[in-house]
């Protein structure tokens, strides 16, 4: 009987459609984010939340600094305002648990999009390996800050550009509107605009001479539309130059995430590089020249500044998926063909959705307590005498966000772009124990207290200064208070 359905052998591989593979990948990423909340370890989360609260309270984006005492009133635009409002809304709705769920949803969307694209070109096993490498690269940056909320946009944008080149056309013009969200959520949108230029150049070089005019017109129209959309921010066209201004700040070299990659100890990034080299060298892989230059350019950016690792890993995996998939093609029937009936897919989707809702309910029902980290001096702030909260403080750079969240105006915080090179470099000199600069700053600001890391050189200086006395210390932070009588005698 030709129409009879043969029984499935117990030894036959289970076939799962691409959509289910993407759904399962998204759930795995969401579950990890919810169950193992690692994104609350960064102090800058504090000032992002307070910025979101300020925007909601005033129904406007701040254009001058409302948080510090040292440069209060200085021009500053909260260029990531959309992410900050989303972060504050989730925090207001569910506390730290709500913020974790928000990051978890963004991470799930990122992995769903990446998994679906990887499975178009790579086997199931290879796709899983690629997703594990992606997770390894993202883990150091899995913190509650705006960049995590725009990563799905970066992935979707890259996939759309790859699809446009695959079909030898320009991206659909309405897609340029995505820049309205991206540009108001995080500064990485400039890289998205650069990607348009990269793929437009590839399209131009691949086009026949008779078609190059059309390529220039269509890709040019899309690029101009995306740029115009990216300028619709509180900063307007000035926002387009902000990432370049930030990248040129000399003070960034003093900040961990802006420092060059460090290979003195084995890291996840090194594991990714070694695995990538192993795959690329084991079999002949042909990468289009422009895309090869793109990958090398992103590698250069990452070696300069570790914070660019997420861009290299995220975009690099998508760009290399096709050539890697072709080079490592082998018989792999699992995760490839659709299930016999659509009902099975609906059941899987229902079960995964139910599990995700259950995990969300668990995370909200079991409140998360933000623990002590090197950037979050929870115990020290809890022991701070109330009278000192309203006196001027000289604080560790990484503690600034936590101080703002606690309602304390800091001397400095993570907004290096606002403080500028001169102020920030002077601060780091003081933090390294420059006594002359410290005395000059204290003479200007008349600090009432300091909060610094235990091993700060300035802590040792203050311990031997009769004008200061240590009033609290733990393994994260030390608080010194100015001696009023000594100051009065002077």
TrEMBL record:
The keyword Transmembrane applies. The keyword Repeat does not apply. The chain crosses the membrane at residues 20-40, 47-73, 93-114, 126-144, 189-207, 219-246, 266-285, 306-325, 345-365. Keywords: Membrane, Transmembrane, Transmembrane helix. This is 4-amino-4-deoxy-L-arabinose transferase-like glycosyltransferase. It comes from Sphingomonas faeni. The lineage of its organism: Bacteria, Pseudomonadati, Pseudomonadota, Alphaproteobacteria, Sphingomonadales.
